[in-house]
Amino acid sequence: MLTFKRFNIQSIPLIEITPEQQEGESLPLAIHYHGWMNNKDYSIAYGIEIAKRGFRVVMADALYHGERRLPGQEKDQDQRKILQVIPQSVSEFPIILDYYQQENLIANDFIAVSGQSMGGMTVCMLIAAYPEISAGVCLEGTPNPVKMFIENGYSVEEIPDNFKSFDLSTYPKRISKRPMLFWHAQGDQWVDVKYVQDFYHSNKELEALKNTHFAEDEGGEHFVPYSEVVRMAYFLAYAYQSPQNDIWNNTQQKMVELYGKR
Question: By C-alpha distance, which of 9, 89, 102, 20 is closest to 56?
């Protein structure tokens, strides 16, 4: 059983999920980031799977999403606002982290980040920005947002400087051997798989990426199958529990046990 809590840290609306009767205990912390035009409630299934493995999971509404939608805001947002939303989430990470550190609620200083689509892009920027993060999972996001946005019609001048400063494709060594998982469907019609393919295959021989792994599905679309949500949860659990050399093997073995596939 799990416990669900809704509250704000400063102006950031959150859902926190913990194993039942462990809300006040120190636990490994995972912060999960939702996608464009979604919200923290949409992320609950992701959070549940991670929390079932003994984590405290936090999901926040990104700027202009969920409880942070502006009065009168139209349903279909200006997509260029994504250039504000992702850096805002990156800047809010230390606010959330500081709260849990001050409350002594993080076990063994283990801090994981995960996200889907826009949230996956956020994860990549967080990994580039914050060395205190222990592990990350990017689901159908991109470690190369600058190139992706430019190739999708944005001008160089529109891209904020902090996008360039924390573009993981420019600074792959910032992964620094931390466990990192990328997953993507080859048929993704919104975030082309080529960006993560190029990043991974260009950098996988770097020592900094020795614990970075890439899984891709043939076909598919811009949608994360539930089996990949489970893979994400086990990857983070093994990142916390296992020696680094065993994380991926343990994750893959679990996927074979559960789904008959790696």
Answer: 20
